[in-house]
């Protein structure tokens, strides 16, 4: 990052807004002057001036329409960006990628911002914080450029007002989860999937040339630990904590989830006590297997594995609970999804193998 003054930056932003306002004011002034001249000239000249005025107004209208369209397109957030102005959650901007994490919180009453910047590549365990005041007459958080201009300024400015030092995480080798975490994850998976684990549930029966083919399904839950996140100091705001835990943008969904986990209000600026989260990867494993004429032998077997992410509160004042996150699970098939989801395909394959090897016990 290069040296510079964030105060100068916001001053330049305000000057640009004033110049834009002056430019449009100047155009409007010229038009009104044209109209006023018509009071002192003849009828033919009046119509000539009138045509000029109409043409100028049409040109201005077209220019404004073009600028509005271009501006609206430029204001659309990218996939990594998110900003919200909401009474329940707060007003804030977030930009989260694999390389950096930026959170900007806005105080409407005080006209101030807190900007949190973390370079995940060069300085992974330090968060730089800027406290910024500005003139609300020329800067507004309803424009994406308000946030992006501010973010660009801190990227190019060394010398934050303060820093937050993070505690490096433990390694992320998978190990068996402890029993209390297992109980929490079990309850969440049952709620998500709508069922507890089961064995040999009959899903399908058919008769193929006098041979009875049956397809059964098992559901198993498996829990593994995956280390912990980096740790944070007490008082770190919830939106920043969310960005520390993973590449999560602090949307209302994640504010609600982690607010519940840490037992704090689901606000972008809620203070979280010192700690970290333990990470888990609970899995729901569906196995379908076929039997011919009641055999214990499996003529076919196919598996679908859903891998979720779960987090355990490890803060000083938290509830100490483990919660399965609301994000969609990753899905793995031992064969193809088409084969797993087709009983008729499994039936045909079971019969083909039966013809090859005959009746098994």
Description:
With 361 residues, this protein is of the alpha+beta class. It folds into 3 domains: 6-75; 81-165, no CATH class; 175-231 and 275-357, no CATH class. It is 36% helix and 30% strand. It contains 8 helices and 18 strands. The protein has helices spanning 6-37, 43-75, 144-155, 179-193, 238-245, 252-262, 337-340, 343-357, and strands at 81-86, 90-96, 100-107, 112-119, 126-133, 162-165, 175-176, 198-208, 211-222, 224-228, 236-237, 271-272, 277-280, 283-292, 301-307, 310-313, 322-324, 330-333. The protein has a 6-stranded antiparallel sheet with strand order 1-2-3-4-5-6, with helices on both faces. Strands 7-10-13-16-17 form a 5-stranded antiparallel sheet. Helix 1 packs antiparallel against helix 2 (43-75) and helix 1 runs antiparallel to helix 3. 27% of the residues are buried. Residues 1-41 and 63-77 have low confidence and may be disordered.
Strand content: 25-35%
Please outline the major beta sheet: 6 strands, antiparallel
DSSP helix count?
Answer: 8
Shape: elongated
Helix content: 25-40%
Query: Strand-and-helix sequence, N→C?
Result: HHEEEEEHEEHEEEEHHEEEEEEEHH
- Count of structural domains: 3
Class from secondary-structure proportions: alpha+beta
Mean pLDDT: 79
- How much is the radius of gyration in Å? 31 Å
Report how far apart the termini are: 72 Å
Query: Within the largest sheet, what's the order of strands?
Result: 1-2-3-4-5-6
Which regions have little confidence, pLDDT < 50, spanning 5+ residues? 1-41, 63-77
Number of extended strands: 18
């Amino acid at each position: 990052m290069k040296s510079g003054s964030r105060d100068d930056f916001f001053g330049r932003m305000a000057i640009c807004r004033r110049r834009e306002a002056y430019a449009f004011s100047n155009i409007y002034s010229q038009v009104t002057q044209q109209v006023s001249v018509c009071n002192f000239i003849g009828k033919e000249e009046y119509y000539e001036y009138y045509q000029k005025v109409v043409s100028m107004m049409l040109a201005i209208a077209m220019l404004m329409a073009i600028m509005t369209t271009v501006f609206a397109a430029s204001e659309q957030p990218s996939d990594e960006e998110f900003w919200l102005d909401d009474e329940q959650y707060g007003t804030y901007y977030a930009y989260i990628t694999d390389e950096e994490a930026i959170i900007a919180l806005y105080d409407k009453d005080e006209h101030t911002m807190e900007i949190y910047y973390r370079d995940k590549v060069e300085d992974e365990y330090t968060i730089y914080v800027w406290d910024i005041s500005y003139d609300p007459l020329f800067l507004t958080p309803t424009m994406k450029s308000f946030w992006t201009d501010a973010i660009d300024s801190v990227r190019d400015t060394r010398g934050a007002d303060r820093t937050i030092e993070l505690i490096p995480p433990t390694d992320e080798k998978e190990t068996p989860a402890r029993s209390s975490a297992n109980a929490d994850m079990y309850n969440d998976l049952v709620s998500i999937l709508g069922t507890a684990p089961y064995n040999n549930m009959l899903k399908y029966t058919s008769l193929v040339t006098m041979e009875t083919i049956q397809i059964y399904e098992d559901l198993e839950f498996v829990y593994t630990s995956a280390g912990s996140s980096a740790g944070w100091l007490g008082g770190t705001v919830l939106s920043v904590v969310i960005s520390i835990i993973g590449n999560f943008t602090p949307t209302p969904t994640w504010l609600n989830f982690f607010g519940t986990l840490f037992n704090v209000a689901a606000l972008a600026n809620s203070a979280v006590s010192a700690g970290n989260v333990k990470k888990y990867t609970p899995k729901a494993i569906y196995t379908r297997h076929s039997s011919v004429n009641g055999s214990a032998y499996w003529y076919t077997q196919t598996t679908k594995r859903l891998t979720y992410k779960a987090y355990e509160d490890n803060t000083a004042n938290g509830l100490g609970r483990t919660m399965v996150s609301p994000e969609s699970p990753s899905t793995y098939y031992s064969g193809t999804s088409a084969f797993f989801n087709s009983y008729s395909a499994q039936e045909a394959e079971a019969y083909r193998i039966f013809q090859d090897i005959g009746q098994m016990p």
